[in-house]
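TICKET: design request
STATUS: open
ATTACHED STRUCTURE:
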């Protein structure tokens, strides 16, 4: 039993180290973008460590088999609209998709295209109006397929 618990502990450390490495690679990618870095850090660009303390990671499953996961990386301090880094992770491969500027982006709960969930971004354009940007998997990356301007729910 102790050997089993030790094995579980070692495996959890390995998974934790892999997740930390993945988040570090995402942060490093986003840190290179001047607009994203300035939004997160202000006029005084901080170190990568300070930058990492000011961002948070949200993940959503895009496809079950084989597993594909979306990571949405946002600043901890948000505004009316803000920057979000969007990455797709499949196995050990991290694919940066794009940096979205809006009031939020995420996978649609039910809509799919080519086996992957559709991603919807919301951009507030006024107090009672928004644009909804639809992104679909094209076999390699997510690409914008539609923009809808409305004052109601997303498509």
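STATUS: resolved
RESOLUTION: sequence designed for all positions
ATTACHED SEQUENCE:
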């Amino acid at each position: 039993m102790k050997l089993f618990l030790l094995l579980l502990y070692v495996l959890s450390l390995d998974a934790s180290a892999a997740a930390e490495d993945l988040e570090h690679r995402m942060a490093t990618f986003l840190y290179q973008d001047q607009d994203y870095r300035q939004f997160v850090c202000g006029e005084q660009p901080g170190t990568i460590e300070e930058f990492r303390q000011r961002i948070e990671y949200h993940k959503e499953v895009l496809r079950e088999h084989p597993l594909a996961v979306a990571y949405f990386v946002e600043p901890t301090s948000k505004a009316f609209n803000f920057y979000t880094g969007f990455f797709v992770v499949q196995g050990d491969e991290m694919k940066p998709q794009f940096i979205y500027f809006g009031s939020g982006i995420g996978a649609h709960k039910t809509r799919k295209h080519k086996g992957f969930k559709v991603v919807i971004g919301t951009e507030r354009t006024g107090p009672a109006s928004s644009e909804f940007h639809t992104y679909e998997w094209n076999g390699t990356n997510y690409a914008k397929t539609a923009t809808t301007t409305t004052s109601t729910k997303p498509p």
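CLOSING REMARK: The chain is about 30% helix and 50% strand. Confidence is low (pLDDT under 50) at residues 4-15.
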